[in-house]
């Protein structure tokens, strides 16, 4: 349960602490006194949207802090601990602190257990601690999605597990359908591309180029084209090294180096310092002799071969044609061929993939249908039970001839299914005998919608309990005997949960276990001194103000005393 909420700088509230007890707590006060800001504070603690317009004029920030007493086993405690909140157990309970700040420049921060957390964590933590219902929730009750979600909540674990199973099956099926559609579109484009790729592949395979072949053929072409001058130059270099026809002479380089080595060898016998130079000169001579041999060998290989030259030029032309289309070098052409072959293979394998996907789609379609029918059956059963229980609650809320009906319409075509199932859920109300059942979205008045919302929450409290319910003017549009019955039903709900109600009706306020009055100070601000727990005559005075607007009305006081007596009898009978 929530034990207190402290608010600073939020709307008309400068600084106020509001305590809460078990049972039913009502919050009353003049219009504009700040009751709505209390609900806004709860909304912020629940991870709601932070609006800079909430910040009190002249304040740097709005600040809200709530303190809960929670069981250590609560999912809220586990989620807060997972987010890094400090969790300490005292006397078998956890005091869980949630906080929220909204700066005047728009920045918002959230806290859990003294640690900064994302606002989404507050939403997750508070979802198992409190259910807040206001005018906006009543309006959402008119929407089909809200009505379907309420039915699934009422259906309990079985319905929610069936819904989760259906969603998983539906998502898998839709994913397969989308992959088939995407692959079909891709295949059309890939088939068109494959036609061109196959032409290129055939051209390359007809030529059958080898890696680096273009470079080697360029070298051969140059050699064949310049065979004559190349031979003369090589022979001239050879003769310079060893003389003509290999005969040594005094002018060739090898002979000159040989004489130099012989002379330096004699000198080295005299002076050993010349030995390194002798070695270098001998090495030069050896290199020159080797070069001469290689030149002679090269010269023997040089010959003018018109047939070979013609073949080389034709081959170079064929390779050049490939390079113009598929790459700047033959190596790049070969890489293109490999990539194109892989793409064509993928297209060829597409038929097998399409058959596999089609088989999977058939199996998944059957699973979606099975899961949808199972979920629809659970919803239909839950709808009848929900209608019966809410109808009974409406009778207790001064609508003795009212009846509720939950209509579950199941679509026939799988193509019309949605992620939430095959069903359209619609809640219909017959407010009195003689009237027709009409959808809540069309036929319910504000007062009727308020009582339907309350009746639904009372019924759902047993199926999906939370420790605290907060109602913002759930009694809107209600008066007289109906208001008394609303107060009585809230009091009964508070026997099993903490209930906090913001109300303008004395008939509801009279049933409270704790009556909190919010009022503005003389300066127009709400502070802690402006928030009081009304007891005894003060409570009677507040009920008189709510009844008649007159502080000293004797008739109003008598009426207030009567309302309190009725509430006391209700509490006594429910024990």
UniProtKB/TrEMBL annotation:
Keyword Isomerase in annotation: no
Keywords: ATP-binding, DNA damage, DNA repair, Nucleotide-binding
Protein name (Swiss-Prot/TrEMBL): DNA repair protein RecN
CDD domains reported for this sequence: ABC_RecN
Any GO BP annotation: DNA recombination
InterPro entries per UniProt: DNA_recomb/repair_RecN (IPR004604), P-loop_NTPase (IPR027417), RecF/RecN/SMC_N (IPR003395)
Stretches assigned to the RecF/RecN/SMC N-terminal domain: 1-525
GO cellular component, one term: bacterial nucleoid
Species assigned in the record: freshwater metagenome
Gene Ontology molecular function terms on file: ATP binding
Annotated family: Belongs to the RecN family.
Coiled-coil regions, chain positions: none
Function: May be involved in recombinational repair of damaged DNA.
């Amino acid at each position: 349960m929530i034990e207190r909420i402290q608010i600073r700088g939020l709307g008309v509230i400068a600084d106020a602490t509001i305590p809460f007890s078990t049972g039913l707590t009502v919050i009353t006060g003049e219009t504009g006194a700040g009751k709505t800001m209390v609900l806004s504070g709860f909304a912020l603690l629940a991870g709601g949207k932070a609006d800079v317009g909430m910040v009190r004029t002249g304040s740097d920030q709005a600040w809200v802090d709530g303190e809960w007493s929670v069981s250590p086993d609560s999912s809220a405690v586990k989620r807060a601990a997972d987010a890094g909140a400090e969790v300490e157990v005292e006397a078998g309970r956890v005091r869980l602190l949630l906080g929220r700040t909204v700066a005047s420049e728009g920045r918002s921060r959230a806290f859990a257990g003294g640690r900064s957390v994302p606002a989404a964590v507050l939403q997750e933590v508070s979802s198992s601690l409190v259910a807040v219902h206001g005018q906006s929730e009543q309006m959402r009750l008119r929407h089909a999605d809200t009505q379907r979600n309420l039915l699934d909540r009422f259906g309990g674990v079985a319905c929610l597990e069936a819904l989760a199973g259906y969603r998983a099956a539906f998502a898998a099926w839709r994913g397969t359908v989308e992959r088939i559609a995407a692959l079909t579109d891709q295949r059309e484009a890939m088939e068109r591309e494959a036609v061109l790729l196959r032409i290129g592949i055939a051209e390359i395979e007809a030529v059958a180029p080898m890696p680096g072949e273009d470079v080697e053929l360029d070298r051969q072409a140059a050699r064949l084209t310049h065979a004559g001058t190349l031979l003369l130059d090589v022979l001239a270099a050879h003769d310079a090294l060893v003389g003509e026809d290999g005969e040594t002479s005094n002018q060739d380089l090898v002979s000159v180096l040989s004489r130099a080595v012989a002379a330096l060898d004699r000198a080295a016998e005299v002076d050993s310092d010349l030995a390194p130079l002798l070695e270098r000169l001998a090495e030069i001579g050896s290199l020159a002799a080797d070069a001469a041999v290689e030149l002679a060998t090269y010269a023997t290989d040089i010959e003018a071969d018109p047939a070979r030259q013609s073949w080389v030029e034709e081959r170079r032309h064929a390779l050049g044609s490939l390079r113009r289309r598929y790459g700047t070098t033959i190596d790049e052409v070969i890489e293109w061929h490999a990539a194109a072959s892989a793409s064509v293979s993928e297209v060829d394998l597409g038929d097998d993939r399409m058959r596999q996907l089609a088989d999977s789609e058939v199996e998944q379609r059957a699973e979606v249908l099975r899961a949808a029918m199972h979920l629809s059956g659970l919803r239909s059963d839950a709808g009848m039970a929900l209608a019966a229980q809410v109808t009974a609650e409406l009778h207790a809320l001064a609508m003795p001839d009212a009846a509720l009906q939950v209509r579950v319409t199941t679509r026939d075509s799988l193509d019309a299914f949605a992620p939430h199932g095959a069903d359209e859920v619609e809640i219909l109300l017959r407010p009195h005998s003689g009237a027709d059942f009409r959808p809540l979205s069309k036929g319910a008045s504000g007062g009727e919608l308020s009582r339907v919302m309350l009746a639904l929450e009372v019924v759902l409290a047993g199926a999906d309990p939370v420790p605290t319910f907060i109602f913002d003017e759930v009694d809107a549009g209600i008066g007289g005997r109906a208001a008394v019955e609303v107060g009585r039903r809230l009091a009964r709900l508070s026997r099993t949960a903490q209930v906090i109600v913001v109300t303008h009706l004395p008939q509801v306020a009279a049933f409270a276990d704790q009556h909190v009055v919010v009022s503005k100070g003389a300066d127009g601000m709400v502070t802690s001194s402006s928030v009081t727990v009304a007891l005894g005559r003060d409570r009677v005075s507040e009920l008189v103000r709510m009844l008649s607007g007159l502080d000293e009305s004797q008739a109003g006081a008598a009426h207030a005393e009567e309302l309190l007596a009725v509430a006391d009898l209700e509490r006594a009978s429910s024990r």
